[in-house]
Amino acid sequence: MPTFSTYDGTELAYHLRGEGEPLVCLPGGAMRASEYLGDLGGLTANRRLILLDLRGTGDSAIPADESTYRVDHQVADVEALRAHLGLERMDLLAHSAGGNLAQLYAAAHPQRVGRVVLVTPTAWAVDLPATTEQRLEAARLRAGSEPYDTAIAAYQRILAGGPGGRGVEEWDLAAPLFHGRWDEEVQAHWAAGEHQQNEEAAAAFAGPGAFDPPATRAGLRRVEGEVLVLAAELDGNPNPALAAELATLFPRGAVDVQPQACHFPWLDDPEWFAARVERFLSSGA
Q1: CA pair distance 257, 234, nearest whole angstrom
Q2: Is the previous residue joined to 147 through a cis bond, with omega within 30 degrees of 0?
Q3: Which of 35, 101, 140, 261 has CA atoms 20 to 30 A from the CA of 119?
Q4: What pTM did the predictor assign?
Q5: How confident is the model at residue 168 (pLDDT cuts 50, 70, 90)?
Q6: What is the mean pLDDT of the chain?
Q7: What percent of the chain has pLDDT over 90?
């Protein structure tokens, strides 16, 4: 397992999978170990995935200053990884909350990114959060059968907040809504996630002061490389319309929507996902 020392001396780990041109991968969660990304639907057939464990997650060390869990501080970790790998420019893939880290990195270092893939990304960094109604509208696409009716009720309680509304049990009940399929393989993947997230780090990730949306939007306008925002038909965070809005912030941004998929699209249809991402990385959107 390779490691490197980042700007404040914290030892960070990354995992290598596959062969081919390198693709640096930033996990979501927020602050979930990169293990859950697996081989990203088979991208390892043509790409060497460099899966970063963010500080305090997976095999990476806990920082001495835990305020550095805030996502804007982690931009320097991504830059330290690039320098460690000896890459002048790097292709970058980020999932979910990791999309914010990728947006901040691209805005700060536009000359260091090649092609960027944002997979079902949240976009708090540019002030494009998914609304409660957008999330519930997507959830209600599944209404009329189980386990989805039970999941929708649980998700409504989660989004409403209040006592008991955000417990592990409620999230487990809502979990079918975050996947395009809900078979034994996907259920096992969901269950494994309980032990992969640093909850303290997740709470600090988007803390006060983490984002300056006008500055980030200005930085993204300097990104010369192509950017693919990959949304999913059944996802509400972001829904396809919000993903398309995010794509417009990049000079060469494009959006695509994976059919019958949700927040973890490489699980829902691995062949579709890997083929679409590889086509983008090889020849552009």
Answers
A1: 10
A2: yes
A3: 140
A4: 0.96
A5: confident
A6: 96
A7: 95
Alpha helices in the chain, H assignment, sequence order: 71-85, 98-108, 132-139, 148-160, 168-174, 184-192, 199-205, 213-220, 240-247, 265-268, 270-283
Residue 75 pLDDT: 98
- Cα pseudo-dihedral 204, 239, 51, 113, rounded to 10: -100
Report the half-sphere exposure of 48 (CA within 13 A, side-chain side). Answer: 8
Token pair, residue 96, equals: 């979910």
Query: Burial of 208 by CB count in 10 Å (0-12 exposed, 13-18 middle, 19+ buried)?
Result: exposed
Please, are residues 16 and 50 in contact by the beta-carbon 8 Å criterion?
yes
What distance in Å separates the CA atoms of residue 244 and residue 150, rounded to the nearest whole number?
30
Strand 90-95 to strand 113-119: parallel, antiparallel, or no bridges (unpaired)? parallel
Q: Which domains does the chain have, with CATH numbers?
A: 3-132+197-283 (3.40.50.1820)
Tens digit of pLDDT for each residue in 70-92? 999 999 999 999 999 999 999 99
Does pLDDT of 252 surpass 90?
yes
Radius of gyration for the alpha carbons in the chain, expressed in angstroms and rounded: 18
With beta carbons less than 8 A apart as the criterion, state whether 263 and 130 touch: no
Evaluate whether 256 touches 285 at the Cβ level (below 8 Å): yes
Instruction: Name every residue whose Cβ is closer than 8 Å to that of residue 263 and which is 6 or more positions away in sequence.
Output: 96, 120, 178, 179, 232, 235, 237
Q: What is the pLDDT of residue 193?
A: 87
Within 8 A by CB and 6+ apart from 17, the residues are: 39, 44, 48, 49, 51
Structural tokens at position 73: 């501080």
Structure tokens at 137: 């509208």
Q: Which two tokens stand for residue 53?
A: 């464990």
Task: In whole angstroms, give the CA distance from residue 177 to residue 168.
Answer: 15
For 28-41, write each residue's pLDDT tens digit: 999 999 999 999 99
